[in-house]
Amino acid sequence: MPTIDEKTLRTLEYDRVLERLAAYCAFPPSVEAAHALRPAPDRIAAQQRLAETREARQLLAENPSFGIGGARDIRSALADAARGKMLEPAQLLDIKSTLVAARRLGRLLQRQEAEYPHLAELALGLPPSLGLIDAVNQAISERGEILDTASARLAAVRRDLKVERDRLLTQLERMVNNPQVAPYLQEALVTQRDGRFVLPVRADFKGKIKGIVHDQSASGATVFIEPLSVVERNNRLRELQLAEQEEERRVLVELTARVAENRHALESALEALAVVDLALARAKYAEALDAIEPQIIPLAADRRPQTTDGGLPSAVCRLFAARHPLLNPETVVPIDVVLPPGTRALVITGPNTGGKTVTLKTVGLLTLMAQSGLHIPAAAESEIAWFDAVYADIGDEQSIEQSLSTFSGHITNIRRILEQADERSLVLLDELGAGTDPQEGAALARALLNYLVARGITTLVTTHHPELKAYAHATPGVVNASVEFDLETLRPTYRLTIGLPGRSNALAIAERLGLPAEIIEEARREIHPDDLRADDLLDEIYRQRDAARQERAQAERARREADRLRNELAERLAAIEDERLQVLEDARRQAGQEIEALRDEIKTLREELRRARQPLEVVKAVEEKVEALEEKVAAPVRREEAPLQPVSGEVRLGSKVVVRTLGKEGVVRALDGERVEVQIGNLRVRARRGEVALRGVQQTDDDRPQAVVHQPSTAVRRPPSAAASPGIELDLRGHRADEALEALDRYLDKAYLARLPWVRIIHGKGTGRLRQAVRQALERHPHVASYEAGAPAEGGDGVTVVTLDL
Question: 0.70 cut: is pTM over it?
Answer without folding.
Answer: no
